[in-house]
Structure formats: structure tokens, C-alpha cells
From TrEMBL:
Keywords: Cytoplasm, Methyltransferase, RNA-binding, rRNA processing, S-adenosyl-L-methionine, Transferase. This is 16S rRNA (cytosine(967)-C(5))-methyltransferase. Its EC number is 2.1.1.176. Belongs to the class I-like SAM-binding methyltransferase superfamily. RsmB/NOP family. GO terms for biological process: methylation. It catalyses: cytidine(967) in 16S rRNA + S-adenosyl-L-methionine = 5-methylcytidine(967) in 16S rRNA + S-adenosyl-L-homocysteine + H(+). It is found in: Cytoplasm. Residues 165-438 form the SAM-dependent MTase RsmB/NOP-type domain. PROSITE patterns: SAM_MT_RSMB_NOP.
Length: 442
């Protein structure tokens, strides 16, 4: 019932999945085991919604859109359990779905729900793409990703990487944290976490990144409360590595909230120098302030500032990070609902991103470094913005990224820009490009 309520809320009110689920779980006060099951079903259905709908459509005489939201989501939950989950025996999944239909005052649909689920249960080829489907349609069905997006990725990243990332986005997401190196080493933190019963392992390529294996609610871990780490995906940590800030530097992070990259950068700086971390929204600036306080990072100065408007700076910066607002496709693995965003929303981002990048570039001192990044995976927001910037700003030149080759696509090795794909870098999807401001001749 809890997963159904949360799915209905997502469908009818269009919320963020993590917040919607948290709200539903809090209200229901379930046992730990039931909470885990409700979460798995909720996220499973969200992630696989397009596949589930295609299977339901192939086994129902009534069109999905004509069903009541309750019946539609009960069927999605039922089909998910039949085809993707081994936690519930198939006959129990069907029986429970029928009971749920009755409990939702949809008794007249009980027979229909039973018939559709039994038909899916009998169909051993339920998970085969339609005969004659083209590549984009096949991948769209198999990995529950809209066809427009699959087609865009196929064109831009090719078949192997598109299928690789679609698969990777469906893996259970893992928690990656950044060691607060101003307070502990990775080895020390591993020992402290083990003492608290939290299993963790260092990343193979970045020793300041740890993967937590049985973390639960991170905020409850003592080491977190003592400011010994913050949660940050590997891709964002690599972005900070590319920014390569040094102790004593002056750094601007123009779109900084909630602050993850500002914190890692301040740690690279050993908390010496000045890191001005800006965001458009006051409530989000407070997140930067509270995070920096917990981590004991005093060089972080957070303030409200609109990065799309020129700003006066007392001095130019050694490093400027421009981690712009974006469509967010790289985060699909953690926020499955992003994949269903309407494609027309994409158009507003590139002009805004380009404008922010141009304005941020004015803060870079000659010889200084500018890093442009997004957590999205579209050429319009990524390569096109970065390359347009370079072609229209002759005072900036590409700077080769110094990142582990194993985490990069072969075509990005030795380049000033990289697209991190989840099946290669084992991180969220991400894009970054680095550019140096030329020093005028003496
Ligand atoms: C991708 S997020 C930044 C993530 C951040 N760098 C981190 O690592 O935690 C983009 C941020 O840009 C902020 N933002 C949106 N429009 C902005 C603007 N015009 N000026 C400054 N910040 C803006 C959003 O509030 C959001 O916090």
C-alpha cells in the first residue's frame, strides 16, 4: 500500500522520488524489512515504468491511459513483481494485487487486474521487444527509457555506450563519500567507520573516495556528524580533481549549492585561501554554510549571487568552477523520474549555461583555470556549450584533463573535456571541460 500511495503521488503531483518516498514511509511507520520492500517496489516501478506499461498494454484490452490511476499503478506493481522481483512468489503477487484493488475501492476492476496479471504470468516472452522493433525502440523497451532519449544517445554516444549506460542506470545505486582530508586520512576513516559497523571500501582510482556498503541513513553515522566526510559521487570528486585547487588559491564556485564540490575543493586547498561559493537561492546558500560548518572548512565563504549577472570581484581567481544547472540526465540512476522529463524542457538550458559560463570566465585571472561541468548527458548542454565558448573566447585555450584513463572513454583520453558514463567510470553520468586563460605576453 505504501509503495502504491507513493507512486500515485508521483503520478498525480509530480514530486521528487526521494522526498515522496520518505514522506510515505514516515507516515506509515513500517518495520525495517517492510520499509525496504516498499522502497524496492517503488523505485523498481519508477525505473521500469515504460517497460511495465508496454507489457501491460500487450496484455490488456483497456488502454493504460483509460485506467484509473489506482488500477494503472496496481498493475505496474504487480507486473514488476512478476517480471523483475524474486522477493514475492508470483501467485502471491497476483493475489495481493487483487486485494489491493479492492482496498482502493476499485472492486469492479478486481477481475480485470487478475486477468491481466495472470496473462503476463503465463507469457514466457513478456519481456521480448515487439517483433520488427528498431534499435531505439528495442532499447527503449528493454531499459525503460523514452525513445527520443535513446535515439539522441545512440546518435551521440553510439550503440555500445548507449546500451552500457542504460544498463548501468538500472543497477542499485551506491553511496560514495569524500574523505575530509583536513581531518582524517582514508585509512583512518575506514577504521572509524568499521568501528561503527559501516562497511566501506576505497575507490580503486581515487583514494579519497570511499564506497559505503551498508550505510543506511548516512546522517546517523557518527563519523558523518563529526564532519569526517561528505556524500559525493565519484564523478563530482573527479571534477574537483580537474579543478586542481591548491592551498592559498582564490577560487569561485558560481553555482555551488548544496556545496559538495566546494567542500572537496576546500579540502584540496587544505582549508587555506578563499573559496567563494555562490548560489541563486538563499535557502540553498544555507546548505553550503551548514555543510562547511560540519566539515570545519573555514575558507568557504557562501553567498547569494546570480551567476547569470555580471559581478564585481575584489580580485580575479586562480580557479573558477561553473557547475551549471542542467537537465540532469546523468543522475537517472539515483532519480529515475528524470528519464521521463519532457524533451522540450531541454531547450532552455544551453543558452542559460552558455551565459553563465561567459560571465564566470570574467572571474578567471590570466593563467587561471576555468572548469565547466554538468550532470547531464546531451551534446547541447555539454560539448556544444564548451566548444562555442572556446571558439568565441580566444583568450581561453583547452587544458588537458588529468584523470585516470580507465574511467574515461578512449576518445576522451588526453582531451580537455570528458563525458563520464556510468558503465565506464562507475559513477553518475557527468561532463566536464577545462580551459586556461592565456597570460598576455610580457
Ligand atoms: C548542478 S547544481 C550545483 C551543484 C554543486 N556545484 C555541488 O557540487 O553541490 C546547480 C546549482 O545552481 C544553482 N543556480 C541556478 N541558477 C543559478 C544562477 N542563475 N546563479 C547561481 N546559481 C544558480 C541552483 O540553485 C543549484 O544549486
Amino acid at each position: 500500500m505504501v509503495s502504491l500511495q507513493a507512486l500515485l503521488k508521483m503520478e498525480l503531483e509530480d514530486g521528487y522520488s526521494n522526498l515522496v518516498l520518505d514522506g510515505a514511509l514516515k507516515a506509515a511507520k513500517l518495520e525495517k524489512r517492510d520499509e525496504a520492500l516498499a522502497s524496492a517496489l517503488f523505485y523498481g516501478v519508477l525505473e521500469r515504468r515504460l517497460t511495465l506499461d508496454a507489457v501491460i498494454a500487450a496484455h490488456s484490452k483497456i488502454k493504460i491511459k483509460k485506467m484509473s490511476p489506482q488500477v494503472r499503478n496496481i498493475l505496474r506493481l504487480g507486473v514488476y513483481q512478476l517480471l523483475f522481483s524474486d522477493k514475492i512468489p508470483p501467485s502471491a503477487a497476483v493475489d495481493e494485487s487483487v486485494k489491493l484493488t479492492r482496498a482502493c475501492r476499485q472492486a469492479s476492476a478486481c477481475g480485470f487486474v487478475n486477468a491481466v496479471l495472470r496473462a503476463v504470468q503465463r507469457d514466457t516472452a513478456a519481456l521480448s521487444p515487439a517483433k520488427g522493433a528498431g534499435l531505439a525502440q528495442r532499447l527503449s523497451f528493454l531499459y525503460s527509457c523514452p525513445q527520443w532519449l535513446v535515439a539522441l544517445w545512440l546518435k551521440h554516444y553510439g550503440e555500445v555506450d548507449t546500451e552500457g549506460m542504460l544498463k548501468a542506470f538500472l543497477r542499485p545505486s551506491r553511496v560514495c563519500v569524500r574523505v575530509n582530508t583536513t581531518r582524517v586520512t582514508g585509512e583512518e576513516l575506514l577504521r572509524i567507520l568499521a568501528g561503527e559497523g559501516v562497511k566501506a571500501r576505497p575507490d580503486e582510482h581515487l583514494k579519497t573516495a570511499l564506497w559505503l556498503e551498508n550505510a543506511g541513513a548516512v546522517e546517523k553515522i557518527g563519523a558523518f556528524q563529526k564532519g569526517l566526510f561528505h556524500v559525493q559521487d565519484l564523478a563530482s570528486q573527479l571534477c574537483c580533481q580537474a579543478l586542481d585547487a591548491k592551498p592559498g588559491d582564490t577560487v569561485f564556485d558560481v553555482c555551488a549549492a548544496p556545496g559538495g564540490k566546494a567542500f572537496t575543493t576546500a579540502e584540496h586547498m587544505q582549508d587555506r585561501g578563499t573559496l567563494t561559493a555562490c548560489d541563486l537561492y538563499e535557502s540553498r546558500v544555507r546548505l553550503i554554510e551548514s555543510g562547511a560548518k560540519r566539515l570545519g572548512l573555514t575558507c568557504v565563504k557562501a553567498r547569494v549571487q546570480d551567476a547569470s549577472k555580471p559581478q564585481e570581484a575584489p580580485c580575479l581567481a586562480d580557479r573558477v568552477l561553473c557547475d551549471v544547472p542542467c537537465f540532469g540526465l546523468g543522475d537517472i540512476g539515483r532519480k529515475p523520474e528524470i528519464r521521463y522529463k519532457m524533451p522540450d524542457l531541454l531547450a532552455k538550458f544551453p543558452p542559460m549555461q552558455y551565459n553563465i559560463l561567459c560571465i564566470a570566465s570574467k572571474l578567471v585571472k590570466p593563467g587561471g583555470l576555468l572548469v565547466y561541468s554538468t550532470c547531464s548527458l546531451t551534446p547541447q548542454e555539454n560539448e556544444e556549450v564548451a566548444e562555442r565558448f572556446l571558439s568565441e573566447h580566444p583568450d581561453f585555450v583547452p587544458k588537458t584533463l588529468d584523470l585516470p584513463d580507465a574511467l574515461l572513454r578512449p576518445c576522451d583520453r588526453g582531451s580537455h573535456r570528458a563525458t563520464l558514463l556510468p558503465h565506464i567510470s562507475q559513477s553518475d553520468g557527468f561532463f566536464l571541460a577545462a580551459m586556461t586563460r592565456i597570460k598576455p605576453a610580457e
